[in-house]
Every structure is written in C-alpha cells, then in structure tokens.
Amino acid sequence: MPELPEVETIRRDLQPLVTGRKIVSAWVSEDAPRLVQLLPTAEFERLLPGHVIEDVSRRGKYLVFNLSEGMLWVVHLRMTGRVKHQWTGCAGTDPYNRASFGLDDETWLCFNDLRKFGMMWLVDDWSLVKDDIGPEPLEDGFERDPFLASLKRRSAPVKSILLDQRVVAGIGNIYADEALFAAGIDPRKAANKVSRPKGTLLHKAIIDVLTEALGGRGSSFRDYVDGKGNEGSHHLKVRVFRRTGEPCYVCDTPIKRTKVGGRSTHYCPRCQR
C-alpha cells in the first residue's frame, strides 16, 4: 500500500499540473462498483464535472483534491491504486483502468487499480471520510512528548502502534519496519515497555526515514508509480524491509521475518534486541 512518501510524491507531481483546471468529465468503470463511496456512481459522475481543482493536498495516506464550492474529492489508493496525469486519454493505456477524469486543458487524470480496493469520496466535510487521523509526522504538530505518551498508553506491540493511523498519520508496513530498525527497537516489544530514550530515538527515526523515502520519490516494490507514471527509487535503499535472509548492513546478521499483528515484519535480531 502506498504510504506517506508515495502519496506525498504523487501530490507534489499533480499539484502544478492540475491546479486551476476544471474537471469536464468523469467516468467510473462498472467493473469497480466499490470505488465510489457514500454516493451512487452515477451521481458522482454527474456532480464532479464543473468543479475547478483549487489545490491538491494530503492527509495521511489520503490524496485530496480541494475543489471549488468547498468540495473535496478524496482518493485512497489502498493496495494497488494509481493516480496518473496523462496527455492522452486513459482508455487503452492500462488494462486495469477503473476511472478517468477529463480536464479543460485536454489532459486526463487516470485511476488504475489491479485489485480494485481503492476508494473515492466527493464530500463537503472531511469528517465524512475520516475524523480520527493522528498528527502528520513531517509537520510541526508531530511532537515528541505526545508521541511518547501514546506509546505508554498501549501494551500492544510497538509495530502495531506505528500502524495505527490515530497515533501517526501515513505510516505503513515499509516505514514502520525501517523506523524501528533505525531506532534499534524490536518490533514485537510492548509499546509501553519502550524506554523514553528509545522512544525519543523512534520519534526522530520516523521523521528521518520518511524524509529519506520522500527524497527517493517513494518505494516501488510492486505497484506504486508517481503522478507521472514513473517508479520511485527508495526500495533500493531500505535496511530491513523485504530483505529476509540478507545480511544486516550494520552487523551482517541475517534479517529475519516474522508476523506482528498479522503483518509481515522484518528486523535484525542483533541490532533490535
């Protein structure tokens, strides 16, 4: 699933290309009956055209097109969704094209999704989509002490806490594993057993890992491409994620894989005791 660095990269790509553009057409495939949320698909297709895209923003893993008349077009890519800006139409460019949106400069926004888990909303109130997302880790609101307090309140594994979007927005499996490695914390450790010094290291590691991944334009392990259809490069620089059996870059110990909260988890048994 695309995480904060991937969705933010897409946002930055799309913002200069679509800001100020009017949506002139909207089409959603009959093969994607769960793509549009809260509205019948036909109503979504009718209401979206005519709106001007005033800005493109992001909240956690949600991509947000801020429209005229106070409306929000919210997109969640889920596992395999892609939003790409194209100079030609979407039809025929991808067998998994699920929706297309024409703009008034004769360009297109194309939504592709192999597994059809992606979702879209057209709302005038963000709380209709999600109202309990935690602080953005790359903004000033992500403060150390509230983060440490959130760890102390929970006895679940610290990896599971990092995946809780109410604690920190935008972190998923890749960057939870990478941040825990950078902080030297076993992902299975109870969150309320993480010491203050280690928690402080984790707070910094989250910021550093996400910043580095954003600089690499995200990680293209499988399906992710940016807003122009190009792969990111950060997957070439990960320390533990999907490196099972390979030597740790720090101590040469083979990276191990386990399950934490039902999620595949990668760690170094020596560096993360």
Compact summary:
With 273 residues, the protein is of the alpha+beta class. The protein is built from six helices and ten strands, in the order αβαβββββββααααββ. The model has no long low-confidence stretch (mean pLDDT 96).
* Lateral strand order in the biggest sheet: 1-6-7-5
Can you say what the CATH homologous superfamily of the largest domain is? Answer: MutM-like, N-terminal
Q: State the assembly state of the protein chains.
A: single chain
Enumerate how many helices there are, as a single number: 6
- SSE succession: HEHEEEEEEEHHHHEE
Gross morphology is elongated
How many angstroms separate the termini?
Answer: 28 Å
Mean pLDDT: 96
Radius of gyration: 20 Å
DSSP strand content: 15-25%
CATH architecture of the largest domain: Alpha-Beta Barrel
**What helical percentage do the residues reach?**
10-25%
Q: How many structural domains are formed by the residues?
A: 2
Major β-sheet profile: 4 strands, antiparallel
CATH classification, class level of the largest domain: Alpha Beta
